[in-house]
Amino acid sequence: MTSPRFAFELHATDGKARTGLIRMRRGEIRTPAFMPVGTAATVKAMKPESVRATGADIILGNTYHLMLRPGAERVARLGGLHRFMNWDRPILTDSGGYQVMSLSDLRKLTEQGVEFRSHLDGSKHMLTPERSMEIQRLLGSDIVMAFDECPRADRPRDEIAASMELSMRWARRSRDGFDAGGEHAEGAALFGIQQGALDEDLRRISAEKLREIGFDGYAVGGLAVGEGQEAMFATLDFAPDMLPTDRPRYLMGVGKPDDLVGAVERGIDMFDCVLPTRSGRNGQAFTWNGPRNLRNARHAEDTGPLDERCPCPTCASYSRAYLHHLQKSGEILGAMLVTEHNLAFYQHLMQSMREAIAAGRFAPFASEFRRGYLGTG
Fold first, then answer.
1. How far apart are CA 367 and CA 38, in angstroms?
2. Burial label, 375 (beta-carbon count in 10 A; 0-12, 13-18, 19+)
3. CA distances from 258 to 132, 261, 263, 354 (A)
4. By CB neighbour count within 10 A (0-12 exposed, 13-18 middle, 19+ buried), where does 333 fall?
5. Which end of the chain is less congested by CB atoms within 10 angstroms, N or C?
6. CA-based nearest residue to 128, from 111, 144, 142
């Protein structure tokens, strides 16, 4: 029997926290889910089989970076992104909008789309909703993101409102462009992105327009762009509730472990962030007792594991003293081992949240987590 193109099953709720399952042709995704970021067709310092071994069901690829190098058409000629990078499970690709918007001095925004210069060689490119859909189709993405603009939350309200309205017009064009994708559209899913920064009324308008268009899943965009955790949580107190309950809710670009717990508490189902891999390369490890800087001299003769509660290969086989030595020496193995641990820790955290929700004990789990991780009740 052919597996479904996309189906979301909600298995249990506990307060606003939800656990469920996304079924797709390339595999199942347990929610809440954390997606390791494979920006340029690689999760940095990790082999794909090692990423899967940490418990990851899905990874994220980056439309902007892949369109510039090696090029979406080349990836398609080589059999698609899955074959190219040896990952046979689902891949979500972002639309490229966030990266283009961050190039404020290298781009020109119009109703049609965004003209920008490559940060690699200065060459000119035009990214529109239609071209973003085409690139993601060429890559062979399983979950395609609508093309949007992501303004900073500290911009004037009228600018944020105009940006949101533009993103909603682009969402309609993304829907049409995706649906014209033939065989790819028949096997993939399209997510819309709610915008509106921290403004409840703008978020509501955005959600209404997205629901009218209709998507397989819905992302909460425009957060984790400098507004701080308190403001982000205040927005998440209302933003996810505006989105359909029978579709996954994806918080883009988040975040720290305590961000994930707080967002799940508020009804989010999916996450991605470069933090566990970037921190792993810089010697910062995430543990149940909070982050640890392995470059710190206090680890130099510590024979204990990185995290006593972690079952990952790094914690099973290597001491903090050795990891400290690798980091201080600039050895590549140091980045590999700490990255592997961080990704395993994130997946262990997600699994623990899924189990707590299913057991109806998410609130005590969250409180216990914060006591250990943040030193608070």
1. 32
2. exposed
3. 32, 5, 9, 15
4. middle
5. N
6. 111
CB 227 within 8 A of CB 198: yes
User: What class does CATH assign to 7-273?
Assistant: alpha beta
CB neighbour list of residue 333: distance below 8 Å, 6 or more residues apart = 326
Tokens describing residue 290: 């909070």
User: How would you class 15 by CB atoms within 10 Å of its CB: exposed for 0-12, middle for 13-18, buried for 19 or more?
Assistant: middle
Q: What share of the chain is helix, strand, coil (3-state, %, to 5)?
A: 45, 20, 35
For residue 106, pLDDT over 80 is answered with: no
**CB distance 163 to 149 below 8 Å:** yes
Rounded to whole angstroms, how far apart are CA atoms 266 and 256? 15
Coil, helix or strand at residue 23:
strand
Inform me whether the pLDDT recorded for 164 exceeds 80. Answer: yes
In a 10 Å sphere around its CB, with 0-12 CB exposed, 13-18 middle and 19+ buried, how is residue 231 labelled?
A: middle
- What pTM was estimated for this model as a whole? 0.97
Count CB neighbours of 77 within 10 A. Answer: 12
pLDDT band at 55 (very low <50, low <70, confident <90, very high): very high
Please state, in angstroms and rounded to a whole number, the distance separating the CA atoms of residues 70 and 75.
7
> How far apart are the C-alpha atoms of 377 and 369, rounded to whole Å?
9
Domain ranges of the chain: 7-273, 280-373
pLDDT of amino acid 104: 66
Backbone torsion region of residue 145, taken as left when φ is above 0, otherwise alpha when ψ lies between -120 and 50, otherwise beta: beta
CB atoms within 10 A of CB 78: 11
Residue type, 200: E
Distance CA 211, CA 205 (A): 10
What is the spatial distance between Cα 257 and Cα 244, in angstroms, rounded to a whole number?
25
Active site residues: 94, 272
How far does the chain reach from its first CA to its final CA, in angstroms?
49
User: Does residue 377 have a pLDDT over 70?
Assistant: no
Residue whose entry in the numeric block shows the structure tokens 């859909």: 133
